[in-house]
Amino acid sequence: MFETVTPPEPDKIIRLMGMFAADPRTDKVDLGVGVYRTAEGRTPVMAAVKQAERAIWDRQDTKGYVGLLGDPGYLDAMRRLILGDGLPASRVAAAGTPGGTGAVRQVLETVRRLRPDVTVWISDPTWPNHPAIIDHLGQKRQSYRYYDPATGGLDRDGMLADLGRAKAGDLILLHGCCHNPTGADLTRADWQAVADLCVATGAIPFVDMAYQGFGDGVDEDAAGLRLLAARLPEVFVAASCSKNFGLYRERVGAVLIVTDAKPAADGVLAGMNRQNFAFPPDHGARVVQDILGDDALAATWRAELEGMRQGMQANRRALADALRAATGSDRFGFLAAHKGMFSLIGATPQQVDILRDTHGIYLVGDGRMNVAGLTPDAVPRVAQVLAQVLA
Question: Which listed residue (94, 203, 210, 229) is catalytic?
Fold first, then answer.
């Protein structure tokens, strides 16, 4: 069957992981793969996760199936974490998924089934898997202006002008916080403008919430999404616990749909889960449920998450300061203002190759840099090399 098949081009980030692992240099720096690392370069298991797992191990007496939608307690905990207490549970349909990617796929496939002719609007740039999944499903997509390379910030006027062309029922895919790959986030006024636009056009927001807690704080990062949910009749959400709970390999995600037709939406989501993977993974979801349902564990988790957030912001400030010293300019000052793990450093693909091949500094081909991959010892060298190569 496979004799004449040409394998597809490997995902560029997965390919980069392999290249980094095979690189024998001891001073190599991985700023490509999107995982959080400590100052020692480790991706740790959070203390709150360890405590929750021990408790689960002690009390769990079955590995029997949970429902098609996942555990109701987990889904309720995710609803409260993401949407807060201002929205009644009766307006939120929910389903567990294998990670945030699984949630994105379930939302898009659900919309394709219900409204096959809608266009999905995605920011330029966006996470590469967004257009990849949309194209795989055969959906129509359209880009909207988002990032202004000249300022390192949001192209607000371009974004609103482009989204003003969306039609009723179209999906507008938004990053809830910590925009990947740019790090440039919407302000509250921007979220309000998007809400106004959706009211006027009938377009439906689809918010990818992959980094809650990495930007300004757990509740602060959800403020824009909560504003949309309070004003609009329908909002789709794809949520991930990979980053903020450090549960990368456990594949913990959820779909939330704000709607007045919760029973029907729950039924559609259950059917979609059944067809795609049947029952969602439970172990990581159970960990999240236990943490959020226990005041002491939740406090431990929030403190750890805040430490991670502050560490990434410290990396940003340190690199911006070092680049200011190395270049004699504030050309890279935007790095300190960005949020979350990622920023676009403004490197061409050729410069990215030089950074990797000559200096052992790994970035994604579009110049996306993961600031969580920096360590204090690496910052001076990285700044000097970036100043040299990007001069």
Answer: 210
